[in-house]
Design a protein that fits this description.
Helix content is 38%, strand content 22%. It is an alpha+beta fold. The longest helix has 27 residues. The chain is elongated.
Length: 140
């Protein structure tokens, strides 16, 4: 076992960690540094699409999970090229977040179930508050 890669990560593996109670942060293993530690491509608010080490990706969080890549669509080299082409692209919560970035590189899909689910939850919350305030004003 490599102490710099104790989870035996491979190029194309998707890493997902908790960002906060509602959202997850997605990253993509795209290679390895000379010491064997993984290079992770991510899309963050401050830096947009960039390459970071594992510790930076984890951002002091202790748990994460791995979705191993099964190489259905793109080869390792194609994944690396697709990431390089996107380096520096800016982060946008609803149009280009970390999940959209990884889905685009791996599957050529620009979707984010987190954004869709968050939008639905937000809309339902607004509807609840609107109905609640409407009910109060009718009683008054």
């Amino acid at each position: 076992m490599n102490s710099k890669n104790p989870f035996n990560l491979k190029i194309g593996d998707r890493l997902i960690r908790e960002k906060d109670p509602f959202f997850k942060h997605h990253g993509l293993v795209i290679g390895f540094y000379s010491d064997g530690s993984p290079k992770i491509a991510e899309c963050q608010i401050v830096s947009g699409v960039s390459i970071v080490d594992f510790k930076t990706f984890m951002n002091r969080k202790s748990s994460f999970w791995i979705e191993p890549y099964n190489f259905n669509l793109y080869s390792i080299k194609e994944i690396q090229i697709r990431v390089e082409e996107r380096l520096g692209l800016p982060y946008d919560l609803s149009n280009y977040n970390c999940e959209i970035f990884v889905n685009e590189v791996l599957f050529n899909r620009t979707n984010s179930p987190q954004v869709r689910n968050g939008t639905i939850a937000f809309s339902l919350g607004l509807l609840f508050l609107f109905n609640r305030s409407n009910n109060k004003s009718k009683r008054a």
